[in-house]
Protein 1
Amino acid sequence: MIFFIVLLYIYSAMAAQISTFSQCDCGYSDPATSATWSEMWHMNFETNDGTSPNMQQQRLYAYKELFFSNYIINAKFNDSYPRVFRKENVWIHDESLEVSVTVDPSKLKPEEKIKCGGVGTNRQDFLYGSFKSYMRATKVNGTVAGMFLYNTQGEIDIELLSSVSPSQAYFAMHPGLLENGRASSLTHGNVELNFDPSKDYHEYRFDWFPNLTVFYVDGVESYRMTTNVLNLPSRVMFNHWTDGNANFSQGPAIENASINIKNMTFFFNSSNINNGPRCSNSKTACDIQEITKSLQSGNQSSSAEGSNTDEDSLSNPFERTKTTSNSSTTIIGITNIVSYYIYAALLASIWLVLMPYS
């Protein structure tokens, strides 16, 4: 009987967690920008579940919500390297998603010597929204870390160049404009950072509107652009690469380098017209700031000084995604599997308790 009560309590806690944001079917409102978005996509990579690294890799690559870069971008200049992206350069490590540049000194050919990493959403229907992540950059010179929206016709980029000192964040629209042979400030910008991005996690974000994109670092507006703003459905991507371009990335990197992503949170509209808010469970949009506080208190500290695991999570799954569409929220991934096992155990315990009376 005690076992039954414990299981009932655990499963109730899990059920409450699964339905955390089920009432937000009127969308998500940001009081700071007066914007309202219809959907939310959140993924947390913190883990303490004791799963072996090999098993984590298998789960990660099988995860249907994610896309892994596995292609080659040819060298853009005679003295630069091709960017060879391999999915094996993305893995779970140090309670984060690690995206790496790896160097094999024994190889002579550039396409064999250096491998890069990239990961993104399988969804390609993001059409305007607020996109942010907590990332830690690398201290190894010669690489570029990117967080961006991608469509074959254009991009919106935040990039961190490890060779630049003092550290800066770069912002860009693609296609970009040139002025006197140099990148135009209309489609390219940068801000000097007052911290070392390789020492700790910081929040990088951009808000994408029709004809306007606003870039933020740690919640502070850093730059805005109104020229060549992407207006097509896109996927969200993160990558880490090196190509030896003396005018940008520099390098190439001569040793392994990694960036780490603690989590990703997107509030957005979908190009799928059937995914708009229905307001069947609520009358007003949920406050993005309150939702963000809830995610931070459950998944990590809001401070860039460190992070905490979710003590309320039953299994501390290696990855957890919350996606909302219309009137429901689903936590996708290992958490669902755990809940199924708990539910099965609960039914079995009920049967064991009632069997003597049958």
Protein 2
Amino acid sequence: MLKKSFPAQDFRLPPAPGYDKIPPRLPLEKVYFAASRVFNALRAFCGDMLREFNTARQPPLERARALLDETAAVLSLNYNALLGVMMGDLDGEYRPAHCARTSILALLAGLQLGLSPERARNLGLSAMFCDVGMALLPDIPDCPHPLTLPAEGGGDALRQHPVLGLGCLAHNVRCREILRGIAEHHERVDGTGYPVGLSGERISLAGKILAVADSYDALICVHPHSAPLPPHLALARLRDLGGAAFDRDVLEHVIRCLGAYPVGSVVETADGRRAVVVGNSPDTPLQPVVRPLRSFSGNAAGPGAFCAQKAGRITTVFSLSGQWGGPGEFNA
């Protein structure tokens, strides 16, 4: 049942023909099982890795690389399937699922940038291990934390988790790009981040991509601090911070990768039809591929009804469970 509605957002991203570097090769339904298997494996791996890191201190790099190679293979078949699977897992144990989702987003961003498979995988590895320092801070709750911390006092222990993680991993991870992503995923382009306060071009591409991916996932997750945002409002929140906290070009790229209305969103178009988003293309991020929930007559749409057509102008986005916060109206 549709519980809550939210206004659509104007992202003002023009069409960009040819932007999509990995266009879907198979229909969504033919990739969904493989996507579910890969996501579950990633989440389980991240959970085991974080639980064991306190004693092992030895990152299982070969297994991580193999999992990300499997993830890249699924993304190349139809990345929308994996995005849809991960959007359906926002209220479980936070840290393992967060590491899994962030690594998928970082890997996808790298592939869509046209980076080599190895460099894109390095982004995924950096995201996967970026919170290992949290395993050394047992008093820090297992939930998202504020996008920014006060300049002085408060959050001092939290500020140290990138440094702690880097210190433990530097002996085993030789790739500078992976290590910089881990060290810089909480840095901000205006210099307000932590642990060092780097700004602008002093932050690596990996650090900039992970900053956006990490923050986006924190905004959409169920956690005790505040109500999570619907995906499109989370992207709008990051966009409002773009140029200050986040690199504008990187942020626009991530929005194109996800689409303004990510897979799994339930939307209403200007002609009154309600539909579920089943696909996006970076070429046209404001026009997702949808499957309407009801036909023009108001009856439930049958199999294949209006399948995989580009949506008209989206006016409203709905929550299915009512868990999302932000300004909205409740509906019957």
Protein 3
Amino acid sequence: MQAKDSVSKSGAVSARFRPADGGSEDKDGDSAQPTESQESILTWKGTSQSVLKHNVRYLCVLGAWPLTRSRLYHLLSGTAFLLGVMHIGVAVFGAYLYRDNIEEMTLMLANLFLVCSGITKLVLFLVYRNKYRQLVLVTDEVTTRQRSYCEGDAALKSILLDSERLTARLTLFVPAYIATLSIVWVPMPLIAYDERRLPFVQLPMVNQVSSLMYALLYVMQSVPSLLFFNIGFGVDAFFASVTINAATQLRLLFLRIKDLRIGGRDAVKLSIGDDIRHERMFGELCTCIQIHQQLVRYLTFVGKVMDPIAMTQVVFSVLIACVTLFQATYSADSNAAFRCVGFLPTPGAQVFLYCWGAHNLMEQSAAVSEAAYSCCWVEASGRFKRALCLLMCRAQRPLVLTAGGLLRINRPTFISLLKASYSYYTLLGRINNR
């Protein structure tokens, strides 16, 4: 994305942006035609320099992000979707059979909601895959623009590297966490019970089928559950990485504005009346304004892309937390209760990734306005002060992400969702005690 700014004689600054390919600007910031870089993102190698490469490749392995044009990959995605739909059908059937047993039914519902969440995210990623590809490209573009500036400052470079390490660790944490839970969830029915039990959805006829059929049913429940658990959590980690990187870019912009002085960042003593140094300071401010406008447009696009995914996770996290807490509290089966206690932090952690990232983003965007007070604006030229006022006015409007266009995503919202889950849990408890 290239910025084109103009400065009037009065010192007023205006900036507008055009796509990197020089095409016309779209309302959503989309290019009318895919660029060469957009085509390269279709390959595994094309993501090697991306700040989101770990997230993209992880989702590719799961069948949610095609990095190849091969039809075999689309067959993989279709097979995963089919397995998920079949599992949902079995779960609904099992919940119907045990509709009078609230303990068994809630255990099945927890698994059903988890798989439904993963399938919904898979469908959204496959249907709107061009938007998600573009999101990765624009994220890399925004990051690259400030990376060159950070190379000359060890402190700024450290902030950028810390952000990249955090996103990488977060992405690698997801499969490690799910693998740990799988050790408890998947083999437990085989170890803890004398009778035949399935891992997630119990079926009455399981004791009448052959050992081969029992093994097939066991695998058919385990594979879709773990697959869509990985997809769902992987998508959450992807958007958490996007917000972490965006907050880092705002933090770098904050420090960049704060360091504005006559003569540039290496200047020590102010030289009033030096036109060249005043011009250099004003030019740096114009660059900061362009970057801020680019970040505002970028985060508007992030909000539109993330909106349905975040709403999906909010709804299912509340439902999963409710039924899992019920199982952990009221289940007469100690093994099922133990499994639910181990799983209980998961729905909260998934929605917390959105709330934590978006809240941090909101704080960093508000801090940009405060940075203007810390720069050397007193000795600056009149047009510098006027341009700085424009930046301050825009930065005072916080950048807020929403879920479904209805719910602000921040830390107070996370607390509200926990309260909502507990309210539904209390309602289930009252129904169970009747």
Protein 4
Amino acid sequence: MFHIRIFNHYVPFQYVVLTFVEYWLLVLSVYLAYTLRFPGESISVLDYRDPAAIKAALFAVVMLCCTLSLGVYEAKISEGFSGVAVRSLVAFFLLGCGSLTILYYLIPSLQLGRGLLSLSVIIALVLCLLVRSVFFLLVDSKQLRRKVVVWGNGEKAQQLMSTIIDTNRQNNLNVIGFVGEPEAAHPDIPKDLLMKSPESLVEFCQSTKVDEIVVALDERRRERGGNLPLGQLMDCKLSGVEVMHSLEFCEREIGRIELGSLDPSWMLFSDGFKYSGVRDVSKRIFDILISLILIAVAWPFMLLTAIAVFIDDGAPFLYKQTRVGLNGKLFDLYKFRSMRKDAEKNGAVWARQNDDRITRVGAFIRNTRLDELPQIYNVLKGDMSFVGPRPERPEFVKDLVSEVPFYDERHRVKPGLMGWAQLKYPYGASVSDAAQKLRYDLYYTKNHSLLLDILIVIQTVEVVLLGKGVR
């Protein structure tokens, strides 16, 4: 699947096209519903000043955001088209109609009548599911899959193959083979995919229509006669075949940086990990605006949560805990208390599955993420950002820095209330989990932007609604 890079974040080009098509289908749905409900009345489709055009545009934007927030497009990879259909139904009728109802209450002039809204949603759902079914058939066709050759057949090549399979990305790729000496190949790589280096790599790529060569050698040798044929790879690159390191390949395809292939020089010289004053200012404005909006919307829930915690287990209903922030600076993080008051009488420990220290109310507020709401204060204060790697306790960080390579690099950006790793990986409760999540934290640290922050905020809705990543 072909990707484009928008503000450092890789986005599949096909999904950009699908989003554009669906936007206009959603707009069209409102006009069709209007025509069916009020036959004989004329409306201007092209006049953007027409109130109907503004209402249709609002309808389309809200429905697209709800579609994205429930991971409708990602569901195709893991759940098939049935998952797409169910999530689309929930996104349109539950989230979409609910969000529009709130907006209509706040801005009555943009309101669609109940009958018109219901008809628009039904038409939109039918049209979008039809388009998505055709789209996914086209995307899944072998003709549109990117043909990939992996240069290497050792440990790193096998890890790359496992990553492709584990993340269900094989549906988007056609791996032709792994190049290297067959007798030195990793035993888990299928024998029918092992191949020796062709005499002319350019001719081989042209004859088999290879789109991409991914370099995944256990040890890159740049000297003449080594395992990396620099001249042939340069010829391929200049003939239109994309050549990239396995690190960049996983970064693009999966949105993470593989620790096993990572070296300090790549971090230093790769595109990313850059300072941007404009980005930092826009991010701070974004943090303040979202925090104020969230306070305005969530204060009744915060009040009820405080009362529930107090009734269930007494005072205090809030607790503060020292966490590691930007550049290793310590700060006090605030939460609604979800555990017993003596939960850490023997010192700091990782949270466990079905942790018996969690109170009855605590289990609910952890599942719904209500316990995190006091951290809005940390965001407004500037200790945290709305989006960023989740802050860890110094007791854990001390061990993680010594056991997990590059762990300290996640502290190059402010910690966040929500993060890229929380979308992509379950709740972490061990050193091993922390290492897995670090792959996503490093991707965010390298590529963070306002666009990626907005995307994470929208997609976090699914995490909250489905209770993902909670212990």
